[in-house]
């Protein structure tokens, strides 16, 4: 029986991938993951068998990874960022644990630098205090629940990190969120918008809740909205630790 | 003018420190940080000048780090986990930006694997959906605000990650949080308790909101409370991606 390592590769540059993640990829015979992620690390995967599928074929990809590991191969199932945060860990572990105990491959999750960590480092220090992480993708979560979470996070004066703020087909959610937050938060609340954090073409914008626009936001963007104490100083976003 | 790099060293083992963090430490002449963290990486700091102070002397430590960098030295200011999450980044950046522009040392934040990432990887896949991160330390935050945030996170059905759940002097906060959460969440909601994640003596407990006890919780513990969909399977905690 082989092993499946569920690996978060971090933002996509080798210098922010942990040695543990790198070792798991180097010692795997098979690399499984969304093609976009695999392309981020060509030097680590060359010569290996690739199970690379397009988005939305997660179940097949996990099934193939499990089959390979059951036939004795070591498999690295990779996600960008942290495989444990909106990544592949949940699905594949569930599928492994559905197998009878003596037929399960070994598995391990290797944590990575997630988009919220990477974006915060670029913006300054926006996460010095309590924060909420919310995905605006309503593909598998009812939009009403997402909006409710945004409201709860606003009422609790959390710093708010938005994953998947906008895609080609989903452009209005972020505008609705802006509207909801303006009901609860000061219109001058700092908003940090980081695209391609830690990758080529990294871009950072600091604006306010009232004024930020969505043109520069896409599926590679992380949006960070401050709490009531967050301030901007010389182009950096800082949330103080104390109240 | 030297440079200050604010470095998150991750959980404390070298295999989960990014190459970027390691390089920043290796190329620094001076290492500043809480003694407990510096002791985690003896092989990287030996021979360097150490500005290691006990907890609660953060301002002096940052001042010394800034002075050294202004005199031309490269300084690594280290935090365990991610320096950008409840770490030292906010204070030192604020102090640097208080200086006149031509007297500021260069600075950079290097992200790390935070306790929430490390603990999640050990528990299985509890963070596949929206989550709130809350510190239970009421040293610099009013306890009423912390309790309000716990309530908001419960109403929003977030997975909840609790930092600083308990210290020697602060033992009741976590019990009050348990009480609050029991008003909103099913008593069988899975609770994961990870102590010394990624370090020696790592310990993992999976219990329920009703039954978890606090004996095994200390200042090196991260507590993760599931959302309404989180389940336990064969000793692993999984939050499904879809609703």
Largest sheet of chain A: 5 strands, parallel
Strand order in the sheet with the most strands of chain A:
3-2-4-1-5
Cα shape of chain A: elongated
**In DSSP terms, counting alpha (H) and pi (I) runs of 4 or more, how many helices of chain A?**
8
Q: Pairing-aware structural class of the strands and helices of chain A?
A: alpha/beta
Helix content of chain A: 25-40%
Q: What is the multimeric organization of the chains shown?
A: homodimer
Overall pLDDT score of chain A: 95
* Greatest interface: A-B, 69 and 69 residues
Number of strands of chain A: 13
Radius of gyration of chain A, CA atoms, in whole angstroms: 19 Å
Low-confidence stretches of chain A: none
Beta-strand content bin of chain A? 25-35%
What is the distance, rounded to the nearest whole angstrom, between the alpha carbons of the first and last residues of chain A?
53 Å
List SSEs of chain A in N-to-C order: EHEHHEHEHEHEEHEHEEEEE
Strand and helix layout:
The structure is a homodimer of 243-residue chains.
Chain A: E1 3-8, H1 19-26, E2 30-34, H2 35-38, H3 42-45, E3 49-53, H4 58-70, E4 75-79, H5 89-97, E5 106-110, H6 115-123, E6 124-125, E7 131-135, H7 143-155, E8 159-163, H8 173-184, E9 190-195, E10 203-208, E11 221-225, E12 231-233, E13 236-238
Parallel strand pairs in A: 1-4, 1-5, 2-3, 2-4, 6-13, 7-8
Antiparallel strand pairs in A: 8-11, 9-10, 9-11, 12-13
């Amino acid at each position: 029986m082989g092993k499946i390592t569920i690996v978060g590769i971090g933002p996509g540059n080798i210098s922010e991938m942990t040695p543990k993640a790198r070792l798991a990829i180097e010692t795997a015979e098979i690399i499984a993951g969304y093609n976009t992620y695999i392309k981020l690390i060509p030097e680590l995967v060359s010569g290996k068998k690739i199970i690379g599928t397009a988005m939305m074929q997660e179940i097949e990809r996990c099934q193939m990874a499990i089959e390979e590991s059951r036939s004795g191969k070591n498999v690295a199932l990779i996600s960008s960022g942290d495989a444990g945060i909106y990544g592949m860990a949940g699905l594949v572990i569930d599928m492994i644990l559905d197998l009878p105990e003596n037929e399960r491959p070994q598995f391990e999750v290797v944590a990575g630098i997630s988009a919220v960590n990477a974006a915060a480092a670029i913006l300054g220090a926006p996460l010095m205090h309590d924060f909420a992480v919310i995905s605006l993708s309503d593909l598998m979560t009812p939009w009403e629940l997402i909006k409710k979470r945004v409201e709860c996070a606003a009422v609790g004066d959390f710093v708010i990190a938005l994953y998947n703020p906008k895609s080609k087909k989903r452009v209005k959610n972020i505008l609705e969120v802006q509207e909801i937050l303006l009901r609860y938060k000061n219109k001058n609340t700092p908003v940090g918008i980081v695209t391609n954090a830690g990758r080529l073409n990294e871009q950072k914008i600091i604006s306010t809740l009232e004024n930020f626009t969505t043109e520069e936001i896409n599926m590679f963007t992380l949006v960070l909205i401050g709490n009531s104490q967050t301030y901007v100083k010389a182009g950096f976003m800082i949330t103080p630790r104390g109240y």
